[in-house]
Amino acid sequence: MERPSDLPRLYGELSEWWPLLSAPSEYEEEAHVYRTLLLAACEDPPRTLLELGSGGGNNASYLKSRFEMTLVDLSPEMLSVSRTLNPECEHLEGDMRSLRLGRVFDCVFVHDAIVYMLTEADLARAIETAFVHCRHGGAALFAPDLIKENFEPNTGHGGHEVDGRAAHYLSVSWDPDPEDDTYVSDYAYMLRERDGSIRVAHDRHVEGLFSRDVWLRLLYEAGFRPNVIPIDHGGEHGRVELFVGRKPTSEAGTAPS
Ligand SMILES: C[S@@+](CC[C@H](N)C(=O)[O-])C[C@H]1O[C@@H](n2cnc3c(N)ncnc32)[C@H](O)[C@@H]1O
User: Which of 16, 22, 167, 190 has the most CB atoms within 10 Å of its CB?
Assistant: First the structure.
């Protein structure tokens, strides 16, 4: 599968450091929120869950106790990290803009990987992928880091040490052109091996930024019945807006005219 040349280094050559830069334990509270929203959005109790852009599988490590999960990511390296954490889940390589598995799931989840949709056209493709893989009466949940209305330049830091290896980062998010649909998160990683040797790496993540109205329109045009859910995760993640799309029970209620 062809891989975009602009996929951040973290999801390729640096992927082995993912669990130290972004530890599964940081996801427990938010995964609980996603689980609650997915259960509430589906007409019947859901069992199967497709996650698009599942990365290192940190959310999945909490969601898998409730759902039978299929995890899809563009990066073979990130799938490999996730397989170690979630050996019981199905893992598949695929692009959320074009994936067609030929089967449906009770619900679909797209977490922060949705930020790698840099144009409205690509965001619409990812939403369409969620729609065609969602059963009637099921739902899709999208959790972008930011929408246009709540973007602010920001700095962050984090990281962990495990068994003598350590990885820490400093991040700076900024918007070089407020007129377009993207912003930039620059990361400086400090990666320390057991022998004390240090590598410092810069990684630029270009991320999509769309307004609430664009989100709601694209979800509606795909055939979902959309809702915005404001959530306050507290701390660095702060206030976010999540989008839930319910897929109507019958074909008749699906496509907007
Ligand atoms: C921040 S990580 C996701 C982490 C995940 N939320 C977790 O719980 O571990 C973002 C992921 O999006 C993936 N990604 C980016 N563009 C994608 C695309 N078009 N289709 C599928 N995955 C994509 C990257 O390969 C990366 O693994």
Answer: 167
CA–CA distance, 163 with 155 (Å, rounded to integer)? 28
Q: Is the CB of 57 under 6 A from ligand 1?
A: yes
Query: What are residue 170's DSSP bridge partners?
Result: 157, 188
SS3 assignment, position 195: coil
99: number of CA atoms within 13 Å, CB side?
Answer: 26
pLDDT below 50 — which residues of the chain? Answer: 1-2, 257
Q: Which atom of ligand 1 is nearest to the CA of 55?
A: 27
Task: Determine whether the shortest distance from the Cβ of 74 to ligand 1 is under 6 A.
Answer: yes
- For the chain, list the strands marked E by DSSP: 48-52, 68-73, 90-93, 105-110, 134-142, 154-162, 165-174, 182-192, 198-208, 225-232, 239-246
- What is d(CA 68, CA 82) in angstroms, rounded to the nearest whole number? 15
Q: What is the pLDDT of residue 27?
A: 96
What is the CATH architecture of 9-148+210-253? 3-Layer(aba) Sandwich (3.40)
pLDDT tens per residue across span 2-12:
455 579 999 99
Given ligand 1 and candidates 72, 78, 100, 242, which is best to mutate, with the most ligand atoms within 8 Å of its CB?
78
Say what the pLDDT of residue 257 is. Answer: 42
- Whole-number Å distance between alpha carbons of 108 and 129: 10
CA–CA separation, 255 and 114 (whole Å): 23
Cα(53) to centroid of ligand 1, in Å? 4
How far is ligand 1, taken at its centre, from the CA of residue 21, in Å?
15
